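Late entry, written up from scratch paper. The run itself happened at the end of the previous shift, but nothing got recorded in the book at the time, so transcribing now.
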Amino acid sequence: MSFTTTYRKLFSVNIYHNYFLDDGNVAFDSSPVLKEAQLVNYNFEDFCKIIPSEKTQELFKGNKLVFKTTSNGFTIFSRAEETAPNSGTYKPMVNLSQTTVFDFLIYVNDALFENYSTVNSKPLIPYYLSNKKPVTEGISFNYLDLETTTLPIEDFTINQASYGEIRTNLSEKEKIGLFGIISLEMAGDETVPFDGNSRNILNVNGTIPANPKTFKLQIKNRSTIWNYRNATDSSLLHSTDPAELPLVKNGIIGYSFGGQERPSAFPSRLLFEKDGGGNIIKTISEIYINQ
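Output as recorded:
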């Protein structure tokens, strides 16, 4: 007699950053062909790490669940069994209640992250991405994106009261340097009225959907004013500010003045001009070139 252990995907989460993925000034997700090509050499761990919370890790151990990272993000697998022989319908071997919640913690690990991103690496309140709205949040709450939807990371802010409740499930160590939390409930809210998409992990009867959900977090790249200076005396080579251009790791952003093509900016050197109140009014990349 032989036994086969079967694992089925519960859901996946992809973590995208336009700085690493865009092809010059062409967005990586502007076409399926380009997206596939740009993802070949991509690894989200170049700028952040994601780990299940301590409480979630305990749930995984007790419920025969597996957390597996990929270059794009991570996938959760459940040891599963068919509801009936040859039915093709599976349920977790250890039943998960509809109110079971998994939390995943995001930490930025690149010192230059803030230079090429539109957000800080350590926000005062971590971003909260979920399929379940906290009771302390209002109608402006946004649900975690699916692969087919895109909201700016800034849209996933929550209020202090919400975070005060959420942080009780985290250890003191887990709170340090926390960038964001991905929190997924097996049932989740009914989000079809939100944007036409459901975000449940399990079917109402506890079975695993034939097409498990793929969620997404996407971070935009920063655009800056590219100031070109003479490498010899640091003098500016133009009299007015050029247009803002995006910072990207791959591809070419064509920019020229004085009849010459100029090199692209890098995120390693930024200057910030502020008004009297300390607000940033200009973000400048300085590029030194030989004349």
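The chain has seven helices and 16 strands.
(Scratch paper discarded after transcription.)
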